[in-house]
Structure formats: C-alpha cells, structure tokens
Amino acid sequence: MDGLVEFKTGDGVRVVVEGVEDEDGARLVSRGDGPARAARTFEESLEGVRAAAASALRVFRDGTLRPDAVELEFGVKLSAEAGAVIAKGTAEGHLVVKLSWAPEPGPVRPEGPDAAARS
Predict the structure, then answer these.
(1) Measured distance CA(74)–CA(70) in Å, rounded
(2) Three-state SS string across 74-112, please?
(3) Is the confidence at residue 116, as pLDDT, over 70?
(4) 94 to each of 13, 87, 102, how far by Cα in Å?
C-alpha cells in the first residue's frame, strides 16, 4: 500500500491523500510518524490536470460537434514529488468524455377544449 502524502492548500488547509508509487519504484519516505510532505501546494499539484481539462474542453467546444454540454472525467493520482498525474484506468490514461445535446424546442401547440376548434 502506498504511503500518505500531505498537501497544503493556498489557504494553509492540510489535505492528506494516499500517495502513489513512482514509476521507477522509488518511494517518498516521511520523517517521523506523519505523512510525507508534498513539495507543492494542492492547487499547484492540480494545475496540470486543470490545463488538460481546459485543453480538452476547447477541442470539443470549438469543433463541428458543438455540444450543449461537455463532461470530462479524469482519474487523478497525487504524488508528493510529481503532484497530480492523470491515472491509468487500464493500459491507457484515464479520461472519460461525455457530450450531450438538448433537443430543439418545437412549435407550441395550444391546449384545452377549444384548441381543436382553433386549429
């Protein structure tokens, strides 16, 4: 099991997450009994994921599809040294994209007993 990693937010709030093992097998070891301390703030660690999300949104919003809504789902792992990384779901990076379109409203039909007489 991976160790705990402590991040601080820009406001100084402590966020502790389960850390990930680096690709080469190296592990960050904490001093004492507490979690390892991250080199970056929580927000700084997530900056790369934010940039990836913004880039993906541009691709789907600016193209010919023009969906009414775009939903992105990233699997994110946090590392004391690397910050946030997009996690592998299987053999590939984990990213789920959902696009949706709302039907265009049709003409409004009159309702009520007199509607048939007016048509």
Answers:
(1) 13
(2) ECEEEECCCEEEECECCCCECEEEEEECCCCCCCCCCCC
(3) no
(4) 28, 6, 27
